[in-house]
Amino acid sequence: MTRRTLSDAPLLDAAAGRTPDRTPVWFMRQAGRSLPEYRKVREGISMLDSCFMPELLAEITMQPVRRHDVDAAILFSDIVVPLKAAGVGVEIVPGRGPVMDRAIRTRADIDALPILDHEVDEVAEGIRLILGELTDRQALIGFVGAPFTLASYLVEGGPSKNHQTTKAMMHAEPETWHALMERLVPTIITFLRTQIDAGIDAMQLFDSWAGFLTEADYREFVLPYSIRILQEINGVGIPRIHFGVGTGELLGAMSEAGSEVMGVDWRVPLDRAAERIHAASGPKVLQGNLDPAMLFAGRDAVTREVARIKAEAARAIDNGDATGHIFNLGHGVLPDTPAEAITEAVAIIHGED
Ligand code: 1CP
């Protein structure tokens, strides 16, 4: 396929270090339970089934773009979709998250873990439908889960508060851990290739739970694999965004994985985040970082927080520590967020209020 060339998309301008004509904004988890139209179309269809239905996944991806005037769509999918496509037994349990049929704990489990060896046609078809609906000012962001976050679901068997079995594997059986990483990377790359070949305009690598690790563990057990994934698409020419929650102490190390854009959670002011990133790997574009809870705090609070975050980003850029800013939350939209609060926040961020 020929990729779209979007010369007038604020998100791509910001990601490339150019000055956009408005502050680009999208929200992690902008599709989903906060929208009544989402709850309606998902009725009676399981989360993972919906990720393999091209018309439905395209519709859900477009819902927040139509409603909120965000500058990007994020592909409606999940980090476990490539595992499901490879034949791994996994379901998404409502209110909980991804749960595996059986946890992956031993070398034999790892050797038997299926590897995704084909493009995922349903997702590619969904992406083509989305691209047919987006304007040339709206980017489509694809994504994959990074190996640590994905491995945590496999090793723990489901969502985990402390990730202790995963960390225990790293430290008690490092060879087993590295074998798991080696086994996961090709699946992640194949799913990313599906999305790139279908025409996504940008991508995000979600290492949501990396912030649970020490920097030393992150560098030894995780970073080499995230480098490999990002390097794999070096020449493609789409911006790469890298994000994790609670990664204040890891921003430098994570920035060394090689993305153009670093997502920052709400705990670290953007100018301080930028100093850490600059010191480790040079100035990059920042993405973030409104606390998702602020969408419950009313217009005045959102206006104040948006102004603070924009000022911190501007300071980082003035100081030479960053080359741009894409507005986002510091993590995903919380499930009970009123849809109207999201629309209002987008207008405030765009400066239309
Ligand atoms: O039935 C439902 O509606 C279930 C809720 C839900 C949704 C809407 C899940 C289960 N996944 C999703 C979609 C999803 N997952 C998107 C959609 C696109 C968008 O942002 O609008 C994305 C980007 C993801 C990626 C994802 N899944 C991540 C990384 C992002 C993040 O939030 O940190 C993670 C960690 C998951 C696992 C997952 N899937 C679902 C849940 C509830 C969870 C988290 C479980 C846990 O706390 O461990």
Question: Would you write up a description of this structure?
Answer:
This protein has one domain: TIM Barrel (Alpha-Beta Barrel). The protein contains 16 helices and nine strands. It has helices at 10-15, 36-42, 47-50, 54-68, 81-86, 107-111, 121-133, 147-156, 164-172, 174-198, 215-221, 223-232, 251-255, 270-281, 299-318, 339-350; strands at 72-74, 90-93, 97-100, 139-145, 202-206, 240-243, 261-263, 284-290, 322-329. The strands form two sheets. The chain has a seven-stranded parallel sheet. Helix 13 links the parallel strand 6 and strand 7. Helix 4 (54-68) runs parallel beside helix 7 (121-133). The radius of gyration is 19 Å and the shape is globular. The model has no long low-confidence stretch (mean pLDDT 97). The protein binds coproporphyrinogen I. Coproporphyrinogen I is lined by residues 28-33, 47, 74, 76, 78-79, 92, 94, 97-98, 143, 149, 159, 206, 208, 332.
Question: What secondary-structure arrangement, pairings included, does this model have?
Answer:
Elements: H1 10-15, H2 36-42, H3 47-50, H4 54-68, E1 72-74, H5 81-86, E2 90-93, E3 97-100, H6 107-111, H7 121-133, E4 139-145, H8 147-156, H9 164-172, H10 174-198, E5 202-206, H11 215-221, H12 223-232, E6 240-243, H13 251-255, E7 261-263, H14 270-281, E8 284-290, H15 299-318, E9 322-329, H16 339-350
Parallel strand pairs: 1-4, 4-5, 5-6, 6-7, 7-8, 8-9
Antiparallel strand pairs: 2-3
Helix pairs in contact: 4-7, 7-10, 8-10, 9-10, 10-12, 14-15, 15-16
The chain binds coproporphyrinogen I.
Pfam families: URO-D
Binding site for substrate: 29-33, 78, 153, 208, 331
Family: Belongs to the uroporphyrinogen decarboxylase family.
